[in-house]
Design brief:
Elements: H1 38-59, H2 65-93, H3 99-125, H4 135-141, H5 144-154, H6 161-196, H7 201-225, H8 233-254, H9 256-259, H10 267-285, H11 292-298, H12 302-330, H13 337-381, E1 385-389, E2 395-398, H14 402-405, H15 410-413, H16 424-439, E3 447-455, E4 461-471, E5 474-481, H17 483-497, H18 507-518, E6 529-536, H19 538-545, H20 547-564, E7 570-575, E8 578-583, H21 591-609, E9 613-614, E10 620-621, E11 624-631, H22 638-654, E12 660-662, H23 665-684, E13 690-699, E14 705-715, E15 721-722, H24 724-727, H25 734-757, E16 764-769, H26 770-773, H27 782-790, E17 797-802, H28 813-825, E18 829-835, H29 839-847, E19 852-855, H30 857-861, H31 867-882, E20 886-890, H32 895-904, E21 908-910, H33 920-929, H34 950-953
Parallel strand pairs: 11-12, 14-16, 16-17, 17-18, 18-19, 19-20, 20-21
Antiparallel strand pairs: 1-2, 1-5, 3-4, 4-5, 6-8, 6-11, 7-8, 9-10, 13-14, 13-21, 14-15
Helix pairs in contact: 1-10, 2-3, 2-10, 3-4, 3-5, 5-7, 6-7, 6-12, 6-13, 7-8, 8-10, 12-13, 19-20
Length: 959
């Protein structure tokens, strides 16, 4: 008995296939497991115990004749009824192509149950011999036909009419042979005896019907044994085994030897009993499907063996028929006409079958030749190379496409080892993958994919992708050249990881390299360092010469950086004018020596990057480099190390640029402080933490105050006073800066109007940038409405214009010129801030309506010590005088500067030599005095009064 021992897949099979893989509510086993579950094993054990118990009872005679009759008749009836109910319930609950077969088996078993019940009624209840013929005979005769039809339903259906004819001929060959043999051995003798004894025709026909139907049933069992469907084969095998056991018992019963001594309850009944219970178990005992491919892979020789036995069946049947005839001849008997007729029909059937098979073989041979030509054309015309390798790795077949793909003729490759054309670096991976693939179950992994390099006939290595299949213990390789694809992928990967302009690694690849340097065997090396590099002045090159020149500068800078680092180090462009370098540690544990070494490397790099750059034949530019250096620490991440180097670079820029700074932990604290200040700055204006101070602008000829410069100060909640240069450095919030500018303008105009109301009509100076003046948040009519609202007299407002470079693309100079002209018509005076700081101020003076020139603080600071600066300053003041403009020197801090500037013709000064920024109370006191003592022969008419020093008025340093 072959019951649920098949493999199943994890997913259930559809009911349309006639199989319920999950069985009676229990989960189906996973793939690769064999045999029934625990419940199935217990059922089989119980079935064996019941059958064994019945056989034991039959062998011992059941202890009494009455019990033997009951068990021999009603016991068999109950077993057959159980088979009928079981098959009927299964067919009712499971719909599929095999449902009619189980219904037919249910009807067949019911007939057997009814026949045994009628037999028992006569023998047990009525206590008399069963008449012949009787209703029991009718039931027993109706057992075979539905079983035969049910076997036909279970069989694998032929697909052609020739197949159906061959099936019928095979059945007749088997049946005719068995009929010949059984007729020669027993049936002819039985028929003659009954005729001699004067038995009726009905009784004689009945005695022959049983063995003839059994012969037909046996013929179908044998004919269909080799034509079983692959679906639920275990259930089919069990049903066939049950019917075969029943037919065997029928054959034994009809033999004269046993029939004369047979009585109900004997051991022969145990066979019928076991056959019925086996049929009852068949639909439920095997609930899993068999994957034909998996079954063939596990048992590669089972199908050829089964096919051979199926092909030999007709010849074996003919041999049996011949043996039946020979038996009569050897025994000296007269050959019966039935035997002759049956033998002739068997021979005729064999000849017909051979003729059909011959025609079928001719058609199949022709079709096979066509398919072979078709597939040969596909293989030879395919651009893929198909190779078949033996289990030893020797190539047994190579398609002609090898000459075009590999540049090597197929004949040259056949007979060589596959390993000889694989790149040595890839061979280990290929062998590992092939071994893993061959060890896997074919049903789970029918193919695999391998990519490696093959040696071509041109001496180069080609990237080849192969689909690998199993083939008779060896392998089939379907290979294609993917070299161009691999190159494209490598190019795309390179483009994704490198800067397109300089071809240096980009930020993503650089971060990955840093992460790799901090892990693995270098994780404990503290000498690994990251350099962040920013090119100072690069923006000016872009603005003056254009972006193409800027790109050329970046390319040259990248080349210098790449040439300056070692072979194992990494240079990268992070974006814009920012570069970086990864300097790997050398294992030196002396931290100080390593810092000194890396600092020297960074400083040499700074000098290299600061050398002049030849952009074209007419332009040579210079930029400086600010470099921040951060060293790896135990446990530090790549992101933290990059951040530390970035902080050090910004410290270098803040400290004056063109320098190298090493990261220190306090830099992070400073960043945190600046972030906190920026966060507090967002609410400081609304919380009233800003105050307005004014610094007097003094007439250098009289010492009188001619104007006051308004300056904002932020007094934080901790009592710290910040200058604009300090608190604006911590934020880049343009909206907050614009809001602060509006507050400064309105507060300065309001306080100036209040001072004018009490008699101090001193003009107030407010510093605004050109971009701020053109900002949409400060509309053209806002200053006019502000002056009108506060009633500030004409000429009482002076605007110092800062950042007025005509080449600045962010400033529309035509619009700026119109805006300043409109302000002058309102009585607002315009001062040009930073005069003398470069070409920008001279160009702005040429284009813009200006009333006052304010000398740059850098000129004033060196006017005493430097004769060159004195000449430059004197020339600028002469220009102001020739244009009829007032001049104001910013940053006049010592008396010597006052004397020098006054001698050069400077009209006004502002600085610590007179007073620092004053609050409103001290400013009004100074305006009441309205004079400051001047050094030199000029004396103030008001007498010798002490000068007002800022350190006495306010602790705020000058801006």
């Amino acid at each position: 008995m072959s019951t649920p021992g098949a493999l199943v897949r994890n997913r259930p099979v559809s009911e349309g296939a006639g199989v319920h893989s999950a069985g009676l509510g229990r989960p189906a086993p996973g793939p690769g497991r064999q045999g029934p579950g625990v419940g199935g094993v217990l059922t089989q054990i119980g079935l064996g115990l019941v059958c064994g118990g019945y056989a034991t009872g039959a062998a011992l005679g059941w202890g009494s004749e009455e019990l033997a009759l009951v068990m021999g008749d009603f016991g068999l009836s109950a077993a057959a009824l159980a088979a009928a109910v079981s098959c009927f319930l299964y067919a009712r609950g499971h719909r599929g192509s095999f449902r009619p077969a189980w219904l037919l088996f249910a009807f067949s078993s019911f007939m057997a149950s009814a026949g045994n019940a009628v037999w028992g009624w006569y023998e047990v209840v009525l206590a008399r011999e069963v008449p012949t013929p009787s209703l029991a005979d009718l039931c027993f005769l109706l057992f075979a036909p539905p079983a035969i039809v049910g076997l036909l339903v279970l069989a694998k259906k032929p697909v052609t009419r020739a197949g159906w004819v061959c099936l019928a001929l095979d059945a007749w060959l088997i049946g005719g042979s068995l009929l010949t043999l059984s007729w020669s051995l027993a049936l002819a003798h039985t028929a003659r005896v009954e005729v001699a004894e004067g038995e009726s025709v009905a009784r004689s026909a009945l005695s022959l019907a049983y063995p003839l139907l059994d012969i037909v049933l046996v013929s179908m069992v044998l004919a269909l044994h080799f034509r079983r469907s692959h679906i639920n084969r275990s259930a089919i095998n069990t049903a066939i085994a049950a019917l075969a056991l029943t037919v065997l018992c029928d054959a034994l019963f009809t033999s004269p030897l046993l029939r004369e001594h047979y009585s109900s309850g004997q051991l022969l009944d145990a066979g019928w009993f076991a056959g019925s219970l086996l049929l009852a178990y068949a639909p439920w005992g095997a609930r899993r499907t068999v994957d034909p491919a998996a079954a063939r892979a596990r048992h590669p020789h089972s199908r050829p063996l089964a096919g051979s036995l199926a092909a030999l069946t007709p010849y074996l049947a003919a041999a049996v028929c011949t043996l039946g005839i020979l038996y009569n001849v050897v025994e000296g008997r007269r050959v019966d006409r039935v035997v002759v007729l049956t033998g002739c029909t068997v021979v005729l059937a064999l000849v017909l079958r051979q003729g059909i098979m011959l025609l079928d073989n001719i058609a199949l041979t022709h079709e096979l030749a066509q398919k072979e030509n078709h597939f040969r054309s596909l293989v030879q015309g395919s651009s893929d190379v198909i190779m078949i390798a033996a289990p030893t790795g020797i190539l047994r077949y190579v398609s002609p496409a090898a000459s075009g793909v590999y540049g090597r003729e197929a004949e040259d490759l056949i007979g060589s080892e596959l390993a000889s054309i694989i790149h040595p670096e890839d061979l280990g991976g290929v062998v590992h993958e092939v071994r893993r693939f061959l060890a896997a179950a074919p049903s789970e992994e029918p193919t695999t994919r391998i990519e490696c390099r093959f040696r071509s006939g041109r001496g180069e290595w080609l990237n080849v992708e192969s689909t690998v299949n199993r083939h008779q213990g060896g392998l089939i390789f379907n290979s294609r050249d993917v070299t161009e694809r691999v190159r494209l992928q490598a190019q795309l990967r390179h483009n994704a990881e490198h800067d397109p302009l300089t071809d240096l690694p980009n930020r993503a690849l650089f971060t990955e390299r840093v992460r790799g340097a901090l892990g693995g065997r270098r994780s404990s090396d503290p000498g690994t360092a990251v350099l962040f590099i920013d090119l100072d002045g690069f923006k000016g090159v872009n603005d003056r010469l254009g972006h193409q020149a800027g790109d050329e500068l970046l390319v040259q800078a990248a080349r210098r950086l790449q040439d300056s680092v070692r072979a194992g180090d990494t240079a990268a462009r992070l974006g814009g004018d920012e570069f970086a370098a990864l300097i790997l540690g050398d294992g030196n544990r002396d931290r100080a020596a390593r810092e000194c070494q890396v600092y020297e490397i960074a400083d040499r790099l700074r000098v290299t990057l600061s050398q002049p750059y030849r952009i074209d034949a007419a332009n040579e530019v210079r930029v400086a480099a600010s470099i921040g250096v951060a060293f790896a620490e135990p446990g530090i991440s790549a992101g933290d190390l990059l951040r530390n180097a970035d902080l050090a670079m910004y410290r270098a820029k803040a400290a004056g640029k063109d320098r190298v700074e090493l990261y220190a932990p306090q830099m992070q604290a400073e960043i945190v402080r600046r972030t906190e200040l920026a966060a507090r700055l967002r609410t400081a204006l609304h919380d009233g933490e800003f105050a307005l101070l004014h610094q007097p602008v003094v007439d250098l000829s009289t010492g009188r105050i001619s104007a006051v410069a308004a300056q904002a100060r932020w007094r934080s909640a901790q009592g710290i006073l910040f200058t604009p240069a300090e608190f604006l450095r911590v934020t880049d919030d343009s909206e907050r800066i614009a809001e602060l500018g509006r507050w400064l303008l309105e507060e300065a105009v309001e306080q100036a109007a209040e001072r004018a109301g009490i008699g101090h009509r001193t003009p107030v100076t407010i510093r605004l940038s050109a971009r701020r003046l053109l900002d949409r948040s400060l509309p053209p009519g806002s200053i006019e409405s502000l002056l009108t609202r506060h009633g500030l007299p004409s000429g009482s407002l002076v605007i110092e214009l800062a950042e007025s470079d005509p080449r600045d693309p962010r400033v529309n100079f035509d619009e700026l010129e119109q805006r300043l002209a409109a302000l002058r018509r309102l009585g607002v005076k315009i001062a040009l801030d930073g005069f003398g700081s470069g070409h920008a101020a001279i160009s702005a003076l040429r284009r813009l309506p200006v009333d006052i020139l304010k000398l740059d603080r850098g000129l004033v600071e060196g006017v005493v010590e430097s004769a060159r600066l004195r000449k430059i300053t004197s020339g600028l003041l002469r220009i102001a005088g020739d244009l009829g403009m007032q001049s104001v020197a910013d940053g006049v801090d010592v008396p010597e500067q006052v004397l020098a500037l006054r001698s050069m013709g400077c009209t006004h000064g502002q600085g610590m030599a007179f007073a620092g920024p004053l609050d409103e109370y001290r400013l009004r006191r100074a305006l009441v005095r309205d004079e400051y003592p001047l050094p030199g022969p000029v004396r103030v008419s008001a007498g010798n009064r002490p000068s007002i020093r800022s350190n006495n008025e306010t602790p705020v340093p000058p801006t």
